[in-house]
Amino acid sequence: MSVRVTVVGSGYVGTVVAACLAHLGHAVVGLESDHDKCGLLAQGIAPFFEPELEPLLAAGVTQGNLRFTSCVTEALQDAEAVFLCVGTPSRADGRADVTALEESARQIAFALRQPAVLVTKSTVPIGSGQWLRDTVDEAMSEREDGGVAFAVVSNPEFLRQGSAVQDFLYPNRVVLGSDDAGALDVLAEVYEPILGQTFAGAREVTPHLVRTGLTTAETVKYAANAFLATKVSFANEIANVCEAVGADVGEVMHAIGLDHRIGRAFLDAGVGWGGSCFRKDISELMAAASDHDYDARLLRATVEVNDWQRGLVVRKLRQRLHGLRGRRIGMLGLAFKPDTDDLRDAPAVDIARWLLEGGARVQAHDPVVERLPQVPGVKLVDDEYGAADGVDALVLVTDWDQYDAIDLDVIASRMRGTLIVDGRGVFDRDKVEAAGLTYEGIGRNALITTP
């Protein structure tokens, strides 16, 4: 059954949600205050890179069940479910900034003309469900008609950049949190095509539906990301131990990952995690714990290990090249992970900045990143081989598939030096050395300077 849905905010999450819900057969209106972005979306053009998204956008717009507007009243007309997908960036104190969420809540309160379910899809501070309800109630009390009935549901997103469409349509679980059973029923109806896999392109998967309370649903998102980030930091901690004792972290992680209690996912050692979610979510979870006089020591260590790991590449380069000043360094990959152009909290940004501060010259390639405003001193080149031209060392930072197939003999012929620093465990040491190059990995039987 089709549900009339409004999606507030057309950033990364909102655009994916709108396009996918339209693909499921719902009538979707996206509300976007940025007129330029709204114009692109209305043409079915995605304002950022994400595999599989643009065809869904274009199909929804062409078929007429997906449209975008900058008018709040128009967007909310007849809406049964309103997904709030506005940004909640971290403030300097680590807390989430809910300014945009509050503004959207008040606009909805004044413009909504029929009962609806308000859905927090943005990652919001724990306890925001009740805060949102109070904010909308307060704003509605200012209306002459006293407002309309509404309910609040927390529906955290678990979208990985680079596979967001797949994650939305074929999830492990759908989490819905509210103390209003009727509101949960409405959202379960929205997700029924996914839960039953009855839409075009359905697969033989059986997503779990988790119905719970508001606060529990909000906590699920933070706990999930904190656990994944901790797994990565654990792998990097073990990598550093492996370098000290002469073990191979790749083989260690493979062996422990075979234990079904542990699993292999997120146990790849390297230069650490990045992106817009992990650091922000861990900071917010630690802040929530601090509010109740609890020091989340494991979470703090997760962040500390990750931050230290980013500098490991620079320390290796400084040691191997006997200093950075006057050296030329090539970098493969800038986005924080493959299949995205997102540079938020990307390890490559910090690494490039530290190299420049150390006196090195840096040139880099990424398949989709075309600008690096955060570090203007970096020269961007057209392909992966251009990144090797005349460099003393080449560093792999983002494990794009095309780098796995790189011709190492060509790389060797274009470099000035011989050092390859494999920050993601992509290259085969034997093949690197067969090309006359020097392999330096992370956690793969090399000496390390103890922090």
Write the layout of secondary structure elements.
Elements: E1 4-8, H1 12-23, E2 27-31, H2 35-42, H3 53-63, E3 66-69, H4 72-76, E4 81-84, H5 99-111, E5 116-120, H6 128-140, E6 150-154, H7 164-169, E7 173-177, H8 181-195, E8 208-212, H9 214-245, H10 249-257, H11 278-291, H12 297-320, E9 328-332, H13 347-357, E10 361-365, E11 379-380, E12 393-396, H14 401-404, H15 408-414, E13 419-422, H16 429-434, E14 438-440
Parallel strand pairs: 1-2, 1-4, 2-3, 4-5, 5-6, 7-8, 9-10, 9-12, 10-11, 12-13, 13-14
Structure report:
The protein has 451 residues and is an alpha/beta fold. It has 2 domains: 4-211, NAD(P)-binding Rossmann-like Domain (Rossmann fold, 3-Layer(aba) Sandwich); 228-440, Rossmann fold (3-Layer(aba) Sandwich). Helix content is 42%, strand content 14%. It contains 16 helices and 14 strands. The strands form 3 sheets. It has a 6-stranded parallel beta sheet with strand order 3-2-1-4-5-6, sandwiched between helices. Strands 11-10-9-12-13-14 form a 6-stranded parallel beta sheet. It has a two-stranded parallel ribbon with strand order 7-8. α5 (99-111) links the parallel β4 (81-84) and β5 (116-120). α1 crosses α3 (53-63) and α5 crosses α6. The protein starts with a strand and ends in an 11-residue tail after the last strand. The model has no long low-confidence stretch (mean pLDDT 94).
